[in-house]
Amino acid sequence: MENYIIPLHKTFWGKEEEKAAIQALRSGTGVGDLSFSEELAKLLKKFLAVKYALPTASGTASLELASAILLKRGHEVIMPSFTFSSCANAVLLMGAKPVFADIDITTYNIDPNDIERKITKKTRAIMIVHYAGMACDMEKIMEIAKNNNLYVIEDAAHALGAKYSSGYLGTTGTVGCFSFHGTKNAASGEGGAFVTNDNNLFKTAEIIREKGTNRSSFMRGERKKYSWVKVGRSLILSDILSAIALEQIKKLDEITRLRRKNAQYFLKKLKKLSSKIILPQVPKGTDPNWHIFAIRVPRLMRDNVIKELRNYGIEASFHYLPLHQSQMGKKLGYQRKDLPVSEEVASTIIRLPMHPKLKKSEIDYIAEVLGKIL
């Protein structure tokens, strides 16, 4: 791995996380659903103002849990192609079919108009992704879901701490899925969370998450013994990682504040290049967490700009190859040019360094280098 002067990501860990991890190591066996996992679930419920939260092994695990609860073989799920493979995998593992929709050219989020075009009698759910911590058009999406009796799975892996209207992203849909991956705003290395306000979904979720057993209710003292009651998976989060995630959630307001501060300074410094690059645009009535700060440049320039930034010690990167253009996408029957906006964004986007520890002097340097390159 190359060592860059300015890395793309940097965790906001300190002595608190180190102390919590050591305490978890000394007080238990590291398995899930011990005291730190319980505290993490409580804090997530309070922070997000949701009724139920379950720590999971990853954001991917949360998506698989959501799909296991809501989907059956033959169902279709509309989702963006401009996302990570975990979204499609979660659906395919249930014998359901991912149906890719195009994205909005401004927010890079799923286009509600294309959602409507893709609905069939087999459609069971809409899986949305709040790309970079920018909110999808939740008002329109929830209206479409209501009118067509569809579930909404919010992939909020990028969006912990971001807001839409007065609520947090990940809490408006049927279920919300978060990630604590080492690159995310709140990071425990690996980890995630599943949230919902539906009691029946929660009860099913905690059974599937715990290998298909009713062990969770046994641990709460609600039964004398537990047993296998449903087909399940092992999706719980180690208490050691829960301890780290717990400290990260305690710091989340500060993490988000620093990211927003850095994003505003980035926008100010790069404004002079606005005739050469496309800057991020914040949808009205939303408050992003700036998980990613992405610009776009002409397609023919993109790869060279990334190369030059890296030559100057700045870790810049492209992002997703749209799923419909992948080998698996082709097996599902998709072709190049099926989703033109997704393809345009994917071939022009550049992710710049963004994390709470980013310094103004580093942003100045990035802006200066971009000015030279462009």
From TrEMBL:
It comes from the Bacteria. Coiled coil: none annotated. GO terms for molecular function: pyridoxal phosphate binding; transaminase activity. Pfam families: DegT_DnrJ_EryC1. GO terms for biological process: polysaccharide biosynthetic process. The active site is at K184. The modification N6-(pyridoxal phosphate)lysine is found at K184. InterPro entries: DegT/StrS_aminotransferase, PyrdxlP-dep_Trfase, PyrdxlP-dep_Trfase_major, PyrdxlP-dep_Trfase_small. Keywords: Pyridoxal phosphate. Belongs to the DegT/DnrJ/EryC1 family. This is dTDP-4-amino-4,6-dideoxygalactose transaminase. It comes from Candidatus Curtissbacteria bacterium RIFCSPLOWO2_12_FULL_38_9.
